[in-house]
Specification:
Distance between the termini: 15 Å
Number of strands: 13
Radius of gyration: 20 Å
CATH class of the largest domain: Alpha Beta
Oligomer: single chain
Low-confidence stretches: none
Largest sheet: 5 strands, mixed
Strand order of the largest sheet: 3-2-1-4-8
CATH architecture of the largest domain: 2-Layer Sandwich
Mean pLDDT: 93
């Protein structure tokens, strides 16, 4: 049995055919043409699906087709309500794609939810019934698995882990609220704080590696300099881990999951991130035994695999 998964991002549309072992056996990407969508998006999905099926040599139609988008989905998973990076607003994408494939079930989900589902079937959540994924990138996303299934929220709106409030007097978030987790735990937090330090003339390795130019700073540079013992980077990174540990502890106290996985570029710091993060969680946690805190495993394939698994999740 084969399923098709689409991960639609602001830069590229990535698609793949996923087999029963949750491996991607064929894949395609093409640029996301914001000027042409939403009108042409369903047609692009149909065109890429047919090309993938030909490339994989499928003799029968795929069992289902799933689409993951970075935005809000209506409770019935029919419409993309708001995907600002894509320029999609109240688009009946599921019906539009289904019109191209009347005999194939079509599913729609938020990309972070799809990533959590991918970790359940093929990654860090395998064998767990209850788990939470944090994705740390430009923003903070996440998905929740409850009782072995993707949890879309009590009213079907999904979850917005990045917009839980962590600091009542914190920075203003893009959502309009102050102190969201996203303002303290996104990769951009490391970048902004490091750039501010450089503007103030902070000396050391970070300053040298960036040639004194704040525009040269990215999250990886901050982590690498902290790993090398740069005082400024170490202070920034320690503050980041403290905030992230508070976010993780809050989720543990609320849901008591078996596993918390961390994905996104910051997770590539490996033990340099996870060892102090676990220690800070242990210091703050009410429970003496708590969730395993581990790296997410699917990386850039999570959107495709998770979208493909939406059909299987709906059947179980």
């Amino acid at each position: 049995m084969y399923r098709v998964g689409f991960d639609i991002g602001g830069t590229n549309i990535a698609a793949g055919i996923v087999d029963d072992s949750h491996a991607i056996i064929a894949r395609k990407t093409r640029p996301f043409e914001k000027e042409a969508y939403p009108g042409a998006l369903a047609g692009t999905v149909a065109e890429m699906t047919r090309a993938l099926c030909r490339e994989a040599g499928l003799q029968e139609p795929p069992a289902s087709l799933g689409i993951a988008v970075p935005g809000s989905i209506d409770p019935e998973a029919e419409h993309v309500l708001d995907a600002y990076n894509l320029g999609l607003h109240n688009v009946p994408l599921r019906a539009q794609v289904r019109a191209h494939f009347p005999g194939i079930p079509v599913f729609l989900a938020n990309d972070a939810d799809a990533a959590a589902l991918a970790e359940l079937y093929a990654g860090a959540f395998r064998g767990a019934k209850n788990a939470v994924l944090f994705t740390l990138g430009t923003g903070v996303g996440g998905g929740v698995i409850l009782n072995g299934k993707l949890w879309r929220g009590g009213m079907g709106h999904g979850v917005e882990l990045g917009h839980m409030v962590l600091d009542l007097e914190g920075e203003l978030c893009t959502c309009g609220t102050r102190g969201c987790i996203e303002t303290r735990c996104a990769a951009t937090t490391l970048i902004h704080e490091a750039r501010e330090a450089l503007v103030k003339g902070a000396p050391g390795l970070l300053f040298a590696q960036a040639c004194g130019d704040p525009a040269r700073v990215d999250a990886k540079l901050v982590v690498d300099c902290a790993r090398e013992g740069d005082e400024t980077a170490l202070v920034i990174f320690a503050r980041y881990i403290d905030a992230l540990s508070s976010a993780v502890v809050s989720i543990i106290h609320l849901l008591d999951p078996e596993v918390v996985a961390i994905g996104g570029g910051v997770s590539l710091a490996g033990d340099f991130l996870f060892q102090p993060l676990v220690e800070r969680v242990r210091e703050k946690c009410f429970f003496s035994e708590f969730a395993r805190i581990v790296p997410a495993r699917l990386g850039n394939d999570a959107g495709i695999v998770g979208a493909a698994m939406l059909g299987q999740d709906a059947q179980e």
